[in-house]
Design brief:
The protein starts with 12 loop residues before the first helix and ends with a helix. The chain has 369 residues and is of the alpha+beta class. α3 crosses α11, α5 packs across α11 and α6 packs parallel to α11. Strands 1, 2, 3, 4, 5, 6, 7, 8, 9 and 10 form a 10-stranded mixed beta sheet that branches.
């Protein structure tokens, strides 16, 4: 079943894109958070439309985007186009959860489109989680002060590597501990979880092992380790050990034995990986961990290719709205990519959208021609 329906009423490209969001669902989300309370002419849908247009438009400045919106005769006449100052005020005051709920709605659409993809017989899904810090000048957002005259917001993401899409996102102040940001990310013993950094609370690894949760992580450099046994790997500069983490003295000793794989980077520095998987060869463990780079590419994409470099409003609510707008755009682009059977990359799809954004032309015909 097609996600994007052929337009019979000559809608603009962006209108066809946003029509993926059912109008009844949109009204329900808006009413849930009283989005139109005292909104006057700048209603919530116009707010959402404007943010998505700014996100996907190719203009170099926000002011140019607003000017183009104000003067574009092809834009839906039911959409109110705000000034930049109006938009900034609404970003600061309208509940960000409206945009969050829209994100999870389009994400469910994508998941339904993808169906169930399985990586191999051992792991039904492979997922990675990590956090990225997004800097903001302290003078603009003093309430989000992070460190060294920088304010920051932290975006923690559970990313489905099998499906190449984010699944859960927590957006919090930059000072919030990483460990607190991943609550609810790990939930299924049939999945493999990858993460970049080890945690000093080794008992957490035991908690995962008791739940039969498989994981591979990058070991912290100063981890307290007791070697139990070593194995030949048959690979140059790759070593395989059974270990226990922690010590009796620290009272942070693991109940379970873990597997540590030692190798070296291109500069000759040690790189250690920790896992509770013992029935796969070293080469496979290293291959699986390399998949984690997909989440790094996702963060890079969000930062470089979607418009979050220029903040429209500077409190936590405004920044969350802008980040969720970027996430919605990413998922809509992934929906197009799946609809056209991965004919184009995400970058190329984005460029095509920016060219045709206000054109009255059938969306799918552009990508399938």
């Amino acid at each position: 079943m097609k996600t994007f329906k052929s337009t019979a009423n000559n809608n603009t490209f962006i209108k066809q894109l946003l029509d993926v969001i059912n109008s009844n669902t949109m009204r329900s989300i808006i009413n849930k958070y009283s989005g139109n309370y005292r909104s006057q002419s700048f209603d919530t849908y116009s707010h959402f439309f404007t943010m998505m247009y700014l996100q996907l438009n190719e203009s170099k400045t926000l002011r140019c985007c607003i000017t183009e919106l104000e003067n574009d005769i092809d834009i839906d006449c039911n959409v109110y186009i705000p000034s930049l100052s109006q938009l900034s005020r609404k970003n600061s005051t309208r509940d960000y959860r409206i945009f969050e709920d829209i994100f999870y709605y389009v994400l469910r659409k994508l998941k339904k489109r993808l169906g169930v993809k399985q990586f191999n017989s051992q792991f039904k899904q492979i997922k990675a989680f990590d956090s990225t810090i997004i800097d903001i000048a302290t003078k603009l957002a003093p309430d989000l002060y992070y460190d060294k005259n920088i304010s920051a917001i932290k975006m923690s993401t559970l990313f489905n590597l099998t499906e190449a899409t984010p699944e859960k996102v927590n957006i919090v102040k930059g000072t919030v501990n990483d460990r607190k940001c991943i609550d609810g990310f790990i939930e299924n013993s049939n999945y493999l979880y990858l993460f970049d950094r080890g945690y000093y609370n080794y008992s957490w690894y035991d908690d995962l092992s008791r739940q039969n949760i498989s994981f591979i992580t990058r070991q912290v450099s100063n981890a307290c380790v007791e070697e139990i046994k070593s194995y030949r790997t048959g690979l140059n500069d790759v070593y395989d050990y059974d270990i226990i983490l922690g010590s009796d003295y620290s009272k942070n000793k693991t109940e379970f034995v873990y597997r540590e794989i030692l190798t070296f980077d291109k500069d000759g520095k040690e790189v250690r990986f920790l896992t509770n998987i013992f029935d796969l060869p070293v080469s496979k463990i290293l291959e699986l961990y390399k998949m984690r780079w997909q989440i790094e590419l996702f963060f890079k994409w969000i930062k470089q290719n979607l418009r979050i470099k220029h903040w429209i409003g500077h409190n936590e609510n405004a920044i969350k709205i802008q980040l969720y707008t970027a996430l919605i755009a990413f998922v809509l682009i992934r929906l197009i990519q799946e609809e056209i059977n991965n004919k184009y990359s995400i970058l190329k799809i984005t460029r095509i959208i920016r060219i045709y954004i206000t054109k009255r032309i059938d969306l799918l015909s552009v990508f399938l021609s």
